[in-house]
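Moderator note: this is an archived Q&A kept for reference. The question asked for a predicted structure of one protein chain; the sequence and the answer are reproduced below.
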Amino acid sequence: YRIKSMQQLLGNPDSTDEQLAYIDYGNDQVILTMILDALKNPHNQVNSAFYQLTQNPDRTEMTLQEFGKPIPNDEQLTVVFSAKSFDQALAIKNQFLGFAPYKPMPSNIVAAQVYHYQDQKGLAHEITVTLYQPQQFGLIWQCNYQLQGYGESIYETVLADDSFSVIELSMRDIKAHLEHFESQHPNLTRI
């Protein structure tokens, strides 16, 4: 029944692009799931998973997630690829987009905050800020932070003489990045 209904949609000139894209994505999903099952076969030597990269209509945001997860309504599937880990998937994403090589993040997160914005069309956008636990290297303290979303991909390292100062300086830099971002995008309103 499902195949017959899809064939009727494919042959109907009044079928919407959204209906046709749903069929196309569903077919790709079945094929890639079969490939993934073959890759999970213990007799194969390849250990990887599939990831999907989607993009919003304005081409200002991209979402990386495991293949098969629901795509947000306003996004389109850009590419599906395999990687051995999420870190490797992020490295492939950066290479695909022409960004600087991906640097894996430390696992200890001190704080994370999502800043929500709305554009003039009413669409919601996000900037995610992550602050990582300071680390001491000899007499110097280091703190890493990241801002990501709406075309931003910033990963910075701050150095200071003590752990309190390095966090304080990192927070000051994060605030400056957000103020700069907001001044560069006057069409966005923080909500």
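Archived answer notes: The chain has a mean pLDDT of 84.
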